[in-house]
Amino acid sequence: LDVVRKGLAMSMSAALDNEIQGFAELAVSPECKQLIYIYFAHTNLKKETFVKDKTIKPEKINRVGVLGGGLMGSGIALVSLDKAGSEVRIKDVSDNGLRGASKYVFNYFQTKVKRRSMSAADARRAKNKLTYSLDLTGFSTVDLVVEAVFEDLKLKKQMVKDIQDLGNEKTIFATNTSSIPIKDIVRGSAAPERIIGMHYFSPVEKMPLLEIIKHNRTSESTIVTAVNFGKKQGKTVIVVKDVAGFYVNRILFPYINEAGHLAAEGVPIDAIDKAMVSWGLPVGPFKLLDEVGLDVGLKVQNIIEQAYSDRMQSTDIVQKMLNAERLGKKNKSGFYSYDRKSKGKQIDSSVYSVLGITPNKKMPAIEIALRCILPLLNEAVFCLDEKVIDSSRDGDMGAVFGIGFPPFRGGPFRYIDALGSDVVLAKLKQLESDYGSRFKPADSLAKHAQKGSAYAA
Fold this sequence. Notes:
Elements: H1 2-7, H2 12-27, H3 30-45, E1 63-67, H4 71-82, E2 87-91, H5 95-114, H6 120-128, E3 130-133, E4 144-147, H7 153-164, E5 172-175, H8 182-186, E6 195-200, E7 209-214, H9 220-232, E8 236-241, H10 248-264, H11 269-279, H12 285-292, H13 294-307, H14 317-323, E9 336-337, E10 346-347, H15 351-355, H16 365-385, H17 392-403, H18 412-419, H19 421-435, H20 443-451
Parallel strand pairs: 1-2, 1-4, 2-3, 4-5, 5-6, 7-8
Antiparallel strand pairs: 6-7, 9-10
Helix pairs in contact: 3-17, 4-5, 10-16, 11-16, 13-14, 16-18, 16-19, 18-19, 19-20
């Protein structure tokens, strides 16, 4: 943009020289190097099978069953129809749920036709591959079942039993849980080797990441098949170990949690969100909570806080919001105002009285950003140390494509390398001294700081 602006006031020859100079500077910038890294990491990820035995071939997935016709279920059905070309059958407990799914799918394909990215005939063919049901009729012949029901362990375990009771030993069961450990869902099942986590992000048709979760008894064939089908759905796929929160939500929680601590200290909510957007994230933490839903946020918070209580000490902000029946965008009552005038662009000032907070603390934007991001970086290192992810590359790609970590910063591990492990370690130790154990540095940070070694290639 600077080159264009300056070029308008120059002769053609001088403008071209200015353009060459601008391009040369950009090509060797840190941001360019990080984006080149993301490009090659993304390319390499497309070739991954995530299993040791590279001779294992994926099973064919021609028919997909989706349990739940809500936003997630509809999105999973869409990418299975539109990208993977599969036949899809959606089951929901109510006619309203199925009507909502039907409308969602219809509007999606209508938009593609209007934008001329799909012909009317192709849209009809895709929609004709979708059927609906209030029971499990037709599910005995599907190759893959993806459940997208509420975050309730008992309900998800029942879904597993219901599908396995149909008697098709070839059916792979995938759970779209966002935080419940797969081992808990699998416990007591007839065929645990055919069960896997496929964690999509909302809205499914727009969010590029698919986080596949393997538990101790998942077969390599099931992993390869799920990875291959995820790629056919147009997803960037990473495979992670089965722990509470998996990888993406596990590193996201301490970031959102710290934003809550800042708000509780009196830093204005909009100042926190603006600082994070300015730092490079697509939305701030409170806007994200509104979009996801405070009820969903609390369920994830409870699971992760219970699993990592020593460094996941949360505030009561989300609980207070729910006590006031503020669910976020879904009921047009959250941190932001959703009336006709503001349309979710302004903070609802009444939220401060709900939370019992006086927003009078000023803090520089970069200080806000680092205070929120450092716990995320630290948790990513914990995940690598615990082998939740296979490599720093997978950790970077999961953060960039799953939570919108700024690509020009390269992902958590590349960003640690850019800052320096010694700098990150020192900042975390200072914050630990000031605020407590939630900032306790991961073990390998000290080792990397001492050696001066990098996390990312």
